[in-house]
Design goal:
It is a single chain. The protein is α/β, with parallel strands linked by helices and 431 residues long. The protein is built from 20 helices and 14 strands. The protein folds into two domains: 230 residues, 3-Deoxy-D-manno-octulosonic-acid transferase, N-terminal domain (Rossmann fold, 3-Layer(aba) Sandwich), CATH 3.40.50; 183 residues, Glycogen Phosphorylase B (Rossmann fold). The strands form two sheets. The chain has a seven-stranded parallel sheet, sandwiched between helices. Strands 10-11-9-8-12-13-14 form a seven-stranded parallel sheet, with helices on both faces. Strand 4, helix 7 and strand 5 form a beta-alpha-beta unit. Helix 13 packs parallel to helix 18.
Length: 431
């Protein structure tokens, strides 16, 4: 029995999750109806996979959502370059991450939805995939899963750990259980100093596992750019000034459109690329209700001189849209609870961003970008004046863009840190 199984809180949790398993299919089907699960692949959440496990050693990476799972790709590609015999499994929990990963997975890598944390689903998942190493990104802690990995003697790592004060406060309520779970990692690499301090405060069992810091989200290549699609869009846009509202959430689309309306009426074009394209109908209705003319990408509608808002309700095209934009407004920061989105994706294409104040998920990166003059943060009510000023000062925007590009190129050393942690635990080649 592992240490993670010895605390009363963990034993009670396992019992509750074992009982919950019989209700899990019904819960998942309700989530399918709400667009939160893949109707064709929902049984993966119960550990039932239609994809055969490849022969040979297998390393498993898990990141709950888009940002976490995509941040693993540079490490995945580095492993594949050094050890082409190793196969990689990447799991996530959201349909958006699955859609994007399907376009960006390297060779010998497969995506699956992560199992729900019931003993039945976890055992079915691990019986099928039999990972030789498990790598978790950020702070997605699932007690049943971690305990089962320990019982099977599968080494596990926690990379790019991000521990907010709220998370740490919750952990302290179950200190013994969390210390047992965290102490089961072979190594824990925090993405920032504050997270590392909170991890060490969980006790000596956890502090002994702390490895050098590295933020996986600062790694990676630029998002893919489709030159042909970009050229076709540019031909329709012509010489118009282009604003991009990227990865927006409910309420942000309308707020950005209202802010920019005077500029749009003067001939500018606003592109809205929602984080979840399933919202396209609602966004279109709201923006047209403001009296603005909309063209929608999923309907192959053309951008003519009368179109003021282009609704890019697609996935995997943000890189192309970044290259077409003059100013990027990054969504996820003007609401409460989202925590912002990755500013390094546009930065790697030479684009700075304007964002809102709720950037908890990317606080360290944004702090550095803002310090370098490569991004600006502003409250929603002050967004309009800032954007209108930037519209009339292209030299300032160009300087911000260049600083953003330079910043993105300074983060290359983090991959060496990550690989130094990973390499000793990679499975031996099999004869």
């Amino acid at each position: 029995m592992t240490a993670a199984k010895d605390t009363p809180a963990l034993a009670l949790y396992r019992q509750a999750m074992r009982a919950f398993h019989s209700f899990a299919p019904g819960v998942l089907k309700k989530r399918i109806a709400a667009g939160k699960e893949d109707a064709a692949r929902w049984r993966e959440r119960l550990g039932d996979s239609a994809v055969p496990r490849p022969a040979g050693p297998l390393v498993w990476f898990h990141g709950v959502s888009v940002g976490e799972s995509l941040s693993a790709l540079p490490a995945v590609e580095a492993i594949r370059a050094r050890r082409p015999d190793i196969h990689v499994l990447i799991t996530s929990a959201t349909t958006t991450s699955a859609e994007i990963l399907s376009r960006r997975l390297p060779e010998n890598a497969v995506h699956q939805f992560a199992p729900v944390d019931t003993p039945q689903a976890v055992r079915a998942f691990l019986d099928h995939w039999r990972p030789d190493l498990a790598v978790f990104i950020e702070s997605d802690i699932w007690p049943v899963l971690l305990g089962e990995l320990d019982a099977r003697r599968v080494p596990r790592l926690l990379l790019s750990a991000r521990i907010t004060e709220k998370t740490a406060k919750g952990w302290r309520r179950f200190r013994a259980a969390m210390a047992a779970l965290l102490g089961g990692y072979r190594a824990i690499s925090a993405q920032d100093g504050a997270s590392e301090t909170r991890l060490k405060a969980m006790g000596p069992q956890v502090a002994a596992r702390i490895a050098p810091r590295a933020n996986l989200k600062t790694l990676g290549a630029p998002p893919p750019v489709d030159a042909d699609k970009g050229a076709a869009l540019k031909a329709m846009i012509g010489g118009r000034f282009v604003w991009l509202g990227a990865s927006t959430h409910p309420g942000e689309d309308e707020a950005i459109a209202q802010t920019l309306e005077p500029g749009l009426l003067g001939g500018d074009l606003l592109i809205l690329a929602p984080r979840h394209p399933i919202r396209a109908a609602d966004i279109r209705a709201a923006v047209e209700g403001m009296g603005l003319r909309v063209a929608q990408r999923s309907r192959n509608e053309r951008i003519d001189d009368r179109v003021q808002v282009y609704l890019a309700d697609t996935l995997g095209e943000l890189g192309t849209l970044f290259t077409l934009s003059d100013i990027v407004v990054m969504g996820g920061g003007f609401l409460t609870g989202v925590g912002g989105h990755n500013p390094l994706e546009p930065a790697r294409l030479g684009k700075s961003v304007v964002t809102g104040p709720d950037i908890a998920n990317w606080r360290g990166v944004y702090d550095d970008l803002i310090h370098d003059g490569a991004a600006q943060m502003v409250a929603a009510e002050a967004l309009g004046p800032l954007l209108r000023r930037l519209r009339h000062h292209p030299d300032e925007v160009y300087a911000m863009d260049q600083r953003a590009l330079a910043f993105s190129r300074r983060e290359d050393g983090a991959l060496e840190t990550v690989m130094a942690i990973l390499t000793p635990l990679l499975p031996e080649p099999r004869r």
